[in-house]
């Protein structure tokens, strides 16, 4: 018992090392709350929901049951089921996975964990391969959530945002909730997850821990070498994360509802990086160590006409990269980076008749210290918005204006370090009164993303003259819900047209080992996607569900009219993708078969035969049996096979993907 | 008639869907009267390749290493030269030297440059008395016996050796130190080929690269500097007495042809290229604008043969490149579409 107590105290000590910064952050964030707290409010005027919990701007949403059934290895793999999402997968289990929505690029996708923005000012992109899914309550991708006060302003300004909610940050009706699981599988896969939550209807306290360990080795063969079997080595990963959460909600006598949540988390990981396969040479021997600490506080106020959310979060992210075989003076590369960020903001909605006035502001301070000579850059970013929802009989309209301000500092390099940009967003949606069970939405959105610290300052390749990337998105969406006899379902789709200018690309200069970052790219993307969800109720305890997402997108390089690649599909972006799932729920047994088809891509922007990457089709299956060992004590056994057809393929050129692999998972829930 | 039409349309539809295949080797026996081009490719893409330009028909055949040997060349082809009846291709990231029959381009041997389980990253090759000398980024020059095709020895040199040349019984090696940028090396070593000992060291300026020895014992080396206007790329001469002289000539790559040195220079800041001709016998600059370089987007190498200049155009480095030939007046007369990042050219009689 004493050991457990010490462990808890040590964990809390680690989590709250940034306490001083955090206190300052809290003081700043709650100013707006006290200013507006006198409003008499009773209920949340939140977001528009239609059909089966489908938000109008939601590209996809997976609830816990769907996440369990799909049995993805990590969040990056789960997001392959989202229409319009192109997941750059650098090698399967434990590998880096980034998301580009509709060809916008990975840095245009934001990431929200329980409503707190996660960002990385150094690289600008999120590695979704690092996000484990054992304790997820839901995962969603949204594109234009302007009216939703739970989404921070900075995330609304992104081209799209991936949102996850975890077990340890949700209220519960049960006095005690327990979730634990053990997973074992191919590649020496071992995962242990355990979460406990103590709750009453007005409060909760939770603790969660997760360990993932893979040796990652697998066999593969290459084209032109069909008779030789190689082994992918230096692919291991070890990761641990702990999280603690708590929350309280109450209703005052005047009817106002309020909610406060706190959280803290600690993540540590060690990953080996095998890199791309270099023909006739061995695997790379690089290593990556990361450590991340986060704390946050979140307050929600719901009154009769005013709703408001405030939050503050502090994030400390350390990264160490080692290449022990580099031919420089030291005979190795050993670089470390420390990112610190404080992010605070508020978001409100004031309802008056058919009008809802929207307002919000985020303030983020980020800094980077590195063993490399990068000049300790820091950035102050402010994201502001004002807007209005107008709810008419037949249409609801949203008009929002965003303002993005950035100020950069670097102790070594002076440059034009301020940037201001106004970005409008307009959305018109039909109401149920006009079209029952059908919704049409038309929206336009302009957004921008600042150059990252790496793009600005990385030695040899950084360019302090970079301007932010600018994007424009136009979307026509439709949504139809139906429920007839034994069949219910929904069909949604979008037609989109996007433009991206000032795209930041790296190009080789001096020689092929020395690249430089330039604002030279332009991208035009247009296409359509369709998602179909059907459910057949066979009997009270048996059903068959089918879902399918299809995306066709042209994402063209429009940078230089004289370039051979002008008008060509940009690198690593398939024109056509499909993911389909069929699920049989028969009493306590759940059987899932899912497939993923990724069409032809090109390794480089020039669409010629030598750059062609073949299309691939992957089939996965799993079976889960759940039963109660006593009341509300559920034991589940799940087993599955991924890449059932043992397809040998690359998603990114020469980052080989694993063949057929297996897993078995034992779960216990209260 | 109706059925014929349907069949015709169906055939056309099927044919139109047929994928482009990798070009077949048009002349599987011997390669003559043409130009062989080494396309460097792009790091981590394993797409180094060979292209053949048939000068009698002006036709280009790409991917001839692949079609002849049924396997890719590897990752980042950096140098290529002929010695005896063999063609040697230095493939940097793959850490191999591909030895081919010069005429058929069939593989004789793939020499793997691994030491202690680690790829040595070879860069350049030069020949002398039956030996091939290969600089490698691990700080050594490997000695390859051109008969047995076995590495017989290796000589320790400076940081990340790049260019090399032989005069008499001396080997000259430029030590770039490029992988420690900006703390680069600045030396050229003189090595006795009998004892394999460094006998002299010349400080030539930061980040030395291409190196050529002339017939009088002068050594010309490109000092690449820091790629900025503060320390620009320049041709440096080490004369027979060992004195180091700046020539004031901007340079990126060097090609020797008889008594003339062809110097290509590409300014990455301005995007302008230039080709100069230097008389090695009289040590004077003959021409400071040999070709109309506005015809070349990114000058990545140059060679001269039979009154024609051949420029390697790397375009934007991520799109396939061109070899552009220029007449004696410096005007473009042909453009050949080759592979990604053409870097070396060998003329075949």
Q: How would you characterize the overall build of this protein?
A:
The complex is a heterodimer of chains A (670) and B (349). Chain A is mostly beta strands. In chain A, 8% of the residues lie in helices and 57% in strands. Chain A has 6 helices and 35 strands. The model of chain A is unreliable at 1-53 (pLDDT under 50). In chain B, strand 28 and strand 29 form a beta hairpin. Chain B is built from 2 helices and 30 strands. Chain B is mainly beta and 349 residues long. In chain B, the strands form 8 sheets. In chain B, strands 3-2-1-30 form a 4-stranded antiparallel sheet. In chain B, strands 4-5-6-7 form a 4-stranded antiparallel sheet, with no helix packed on it. A 4-stranded antiparallel sheet of chain B has the order 10-11-12-13, with no helix packed on it. Chain B has helices at residues 2-17, 64-69, and strands at residues 34-39, 49-54, 59-62, 77-83, 86-91, 96-101, 107-112, 114-115, 118-119, 122-128, 131-136, 140-145, 151-156, 161-167, 170-175, 187-192, 198-203, 208-213, 219-223, 234-238, 244-246, 253-257, 260-267, 272-279, 284-287, 299-305, 308-313, 320-326, 332-340, 342-348. Classes of the chains: A mainly beta (670), B mainly beta (349). The interface between A and B is large, with 40 and 56 residues.
């Amino acid at each position: 018992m004493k050991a457990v107590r010490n462990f808890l105290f040590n964990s809390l000590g680690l989590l709250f090392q940034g306490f001083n910064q955090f206190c300052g952050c809290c003081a700043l964030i709650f100013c707006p709350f006290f200013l507006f707290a006198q409003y008499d409010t009773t209920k949340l005027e939140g977001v528009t929901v239609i059909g089966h919990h489908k938000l109008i701007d939601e590209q996809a949403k997976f609830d816990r049951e769907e996440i369990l059934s799909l049995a993805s290895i990590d969040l990056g793999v789960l997001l392959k089921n989202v229409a319009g999402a192109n997941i750059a997968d650098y090698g399967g289990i434990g590998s880096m996975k980034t998301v580009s929505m509709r060809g916008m690029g990975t840095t245009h996708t934001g990431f929200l964990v329980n409503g707190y923005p996660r960002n990385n000012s150094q690289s600008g992109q999120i590695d979704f391969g690092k996000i484990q899914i054992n304790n997820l309550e839901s995962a969603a991708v949204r594109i234009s959530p302007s009216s939703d006060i739970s989404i921070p302003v900075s995330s609304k300004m992104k081209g799209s945002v991936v949102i996850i909610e975890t077990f340890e940050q949700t209220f519960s009706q049960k006095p005690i909730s327990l979730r634990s699981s053990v997973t074992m599988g191919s590649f020496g896969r071992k995962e242990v997850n355990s979460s406990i939550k103590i709750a009453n209807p007005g409060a909760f306290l939770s603790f969660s821990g997760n360990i993932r360990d893979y040796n990652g080795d697998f066999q593969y063969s290459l084209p032109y070498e069909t008779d030789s079997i190689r082994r992918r080595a230096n692919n291991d990963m070890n990761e641990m994360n702990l999280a603690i959460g708590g929350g309280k909600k109450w209703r005052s006598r005047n009817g106002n509802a309020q909610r406060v949540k706190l959280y803290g988390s600690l993540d540590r990981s060690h990953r080996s990086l095998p890199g791309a396969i270099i023909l006739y040479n061995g695997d790379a021997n690089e290593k990556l160590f990361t450590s991340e600490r986060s704390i946050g506080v979140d307050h929600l106020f719901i009154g009769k006409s005013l709703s408001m959310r405030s939050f503050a979060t502090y994030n400390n992210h350390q990264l160490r990269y080692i290449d022990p075989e580099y031919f420089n003076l030291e005979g190795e590369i050993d670089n470390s980076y420390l990112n610190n960020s404080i992010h605070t903001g508020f978001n409100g909605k004031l309802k008056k008749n058919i009008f809802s006035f929207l307002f919000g502001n985020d303030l983020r301070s980020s800094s980077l210290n590195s063993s490399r000579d990068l000049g300790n850059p820091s950035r102050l970013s402010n994201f502001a918005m004002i807007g209005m929802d107008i709810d008419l009989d037949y249409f609801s309209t949203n008009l929002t204006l965003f303002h993005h301000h950035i100020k950069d500092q670097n102790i070594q390099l002076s440059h034009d370090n301020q940037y201001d940009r106004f970005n409008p967003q307009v959305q018109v949606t039909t109401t149920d009164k006009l079209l029952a069970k059908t919704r049409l939405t038309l929206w336009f959105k302009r957004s921008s993303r600042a150059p990252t610290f790496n793009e600005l300052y990385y030695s040899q390749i950084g360019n302090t003259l970079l301007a932010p990337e600018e994007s424009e998105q136009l979307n026509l969406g439709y949504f139809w819900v139906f429920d007839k006899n034994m069949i219910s379902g929904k069909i949604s789709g979008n037609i989109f047209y996007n433009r991206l200018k000032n795209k930041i690309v790296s190009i080789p200069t001096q020689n092929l080992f020395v690249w430089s970052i330039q604002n030279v790219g332009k991208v035009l993307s247009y296409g359509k996607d369709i998602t179909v969800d059907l459910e057949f109720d066979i009997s009270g305890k048996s059903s068959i569900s089918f879902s399918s997402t299809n995306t066709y997108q042209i994402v063209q390089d429009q940078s230089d009219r004289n370039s051979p690649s002008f008008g060509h599909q940009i690198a690593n972006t398939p024109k056509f993708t499909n993911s389909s799932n069929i699920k049989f729920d028969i009493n306590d047994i759940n059987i899932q078969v899912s497939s993923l088809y990724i069409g032809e891509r090109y390794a480089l922007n020039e669409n010629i035969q030598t750059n062609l990457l073949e299309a691939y089709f992957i089939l996965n299956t799993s079976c889960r049996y759940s039963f109660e060992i006593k009341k509300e004590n559920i034991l589940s056994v799940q087993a599955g096979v991924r890449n059932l057809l043992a397809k040998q393929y690359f998603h990114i050129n020469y980052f080989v993907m694993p063949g057929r692999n297996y897993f078995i998972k034992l779960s216990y829930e209260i | 008639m109706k059925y014929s039409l349907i069949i015709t349309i169906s055939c056309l539809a099927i044919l139109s869907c047929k994928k482009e295949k990798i070009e077949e080797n048009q002349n599987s026996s011997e390669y003559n009267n043409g130009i062989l081009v080494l396309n460097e490719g792009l790091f981590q893409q394993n797409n180094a390749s060979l292209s053949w330009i048939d000068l009698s028909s002006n036709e280009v055949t790409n991917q001839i290493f692949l079609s002849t040997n049924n396997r890719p060349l590897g990752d980042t082809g950096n140098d290529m030269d002929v010695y005896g009846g063999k063609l040697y291709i230095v493939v940097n990231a793959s850490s191999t030297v591909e030895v081919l029959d010069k005429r058929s381009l069939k593989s004789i041997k793939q020499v793997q440059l691994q030491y202690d389980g680690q790829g040595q990253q070879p860069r350049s090759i030069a020949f002398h008395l039956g030996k091939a000398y290969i600089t490698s980024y691990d700080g050594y020059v490997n000695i390859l016996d051109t008969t047995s095709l076995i590495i017989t020895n290796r000589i320790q040199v400076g940081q990340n050796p790049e260019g090399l040349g032989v005069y008499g019984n001396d080997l000259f090696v430029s030590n770039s130190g490029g992988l420690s940028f900006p703390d680069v090396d600045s030396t050229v070593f003189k090595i006795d080929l009998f004892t394999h000992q460094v006998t002299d060291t010349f400080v030539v300026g930061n980040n030395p690269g291409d190196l050529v020895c002339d017939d009088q014992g002068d050594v010309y080396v490109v000092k690449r500097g820091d790629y900025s206007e503060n320390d620009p790329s320049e041709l440096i001469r080490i004369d027979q007495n060992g004195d180091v002289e700046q020539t004031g000539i901007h340079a990126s790559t060097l090609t020797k042809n008889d008594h003339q040195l062809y110097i290509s220079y590409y300014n990455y800041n301005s995007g302008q290229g230039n080709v100069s001709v230097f008389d090695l016998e009289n040590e004077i600059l003959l021409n400071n604008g040999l070709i109309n370089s506005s015809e070349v987007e990114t000058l990545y190498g140059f060679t001269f043969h039979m009154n024609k200049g051949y420029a390697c155009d790397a375009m934007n480095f991520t799109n396939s490149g061109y070899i552009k030939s220029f007449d004696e007046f410096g005007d473009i007369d042909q453009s050949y579409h080759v592979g990604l990042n053409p870097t070396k050219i060998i003329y075949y009689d």
